[in-house]
Amino acid sequence: MALVSRTIEYTVEGTLLEGYLVWDDSWDGPRPAVAVAHTWAGRGEFECGKARKLAEQGYVGFALDMYGKGILGTGPEENAALMNPLLEDRALLQKRINGAIECLREQPQVNAAQVAAMGFCFGGLCALDLARSGSDVCGVVSFHGLFTPAANLPKPQIQTKVLCLHGYDDPMAKPDSMVALADEMNAAGADWQVHAYGGTVHAFTNPVAADPDNGLAYSKKADRRSWQALMNFLEEVFSV
């Protein structure tokens, strides 16, 4: 196995963005692909590492960009300043996540009919908004994501399968928001799942998350369980 990677520039609504594509070149022909949406800090090593981990499993991994080429936050204030404009303009957020999927489908290593998306924290909301926007991707996965509904899509038309991997004690998406998401998914007639991990808070997949007083902490057990759930989900959605 030899992983090969490259960065890809693409433009959405006049904004230059840059994604990171990685695949195993020992596979012949186009492969199923998974886009990885980043946390509020922007596309960094965490997301690129997840893309590589996907490539090791035989998928094409694509760490996408929601903010702009080279734009990264360095702390909570900068991160919030980058994220909040997209939370306030969900139509723009949806255009950027859909633009990333279009870019991914254009790559020669990718089977354009077999694309899924996943995301972490803010990126989990991006993955859910991809589904809410009516995308025909095979599936979307939210890891400790935000569940806030999209005001511009009061009656979302969801065509894809949805999986949410969630810390039950996450202060950024409390149980009532999880129930509200379930109601939203049911109203849309979606094929959805929520796996809630007890005793688990926000950012449970990130080994450097260590702020339990503010509800951020790594959980080795939830990290392992959620990744296995992802693998099972991808096997299912790509087998059709």
Summary, kept brief:
The protein has helices spanning 45-56, 76-88, 90-105, 122-132, 175-187, 220-237; strands spanning 3-12, 15-24, 31-37, 60-63, 110-120, 139-143, 161-167, 191-197, 210-211, 216-217.
Describe the fold and architecture:
The protein contains six helices and ten strands. By secondary structure, the chain is α/β, with parallel strands linked by helices. It has one domain: Alpha/Beta hydrolase fold, catalytic domain (Rossmann fold, 3-Layer(aba) Sandwich). Strands 1-2-4-3-5-6-7-8 form an eight-stranded mixed β-sheet, with helices on both faces. α3 (90-105) packs across α4. The longest helix has 18 residues, at 220-237.
Q: What is the residue-mean pLDDT, rounded to a whole number? A: 97
Find the count of extended strands (DSSP E, 2+ residues).
Answer: 10
Distance between the termini: 26 Å
What structural class do you assign from the helix and strand content? Answer: alpha/beta
Name the overall outline. globular
* CATH class descriptor name: Alpha Beta
Strand percentage lies at 25-35%
- As a percent range, the share of helical residues equals 25-40%
List SSEs in N-to-C order. Answer: EEEHEHHEHEEHEEEH
CATH-defined topology: Rossmann fold
Q: CATH architecture, please?
A: 3-Layer(aba) Sandwich
Write out the strand line-up for the largest beta sheet, numbering strands in chain order.
Answer: 1-2-4-3-5-6-7-8
CATH superfamily: Alpha/Beta hydrolase fold, catalytic domain
Number of helices: 6
Gyration radius from CA atoms, angstroms: 16 Å
Q: What low-confidence regions span 5 or more consecutive residues with pLDDT below 50?
A: none
The biggest sheet amounts to: 8 strands, mixed
Total domain modules: 1
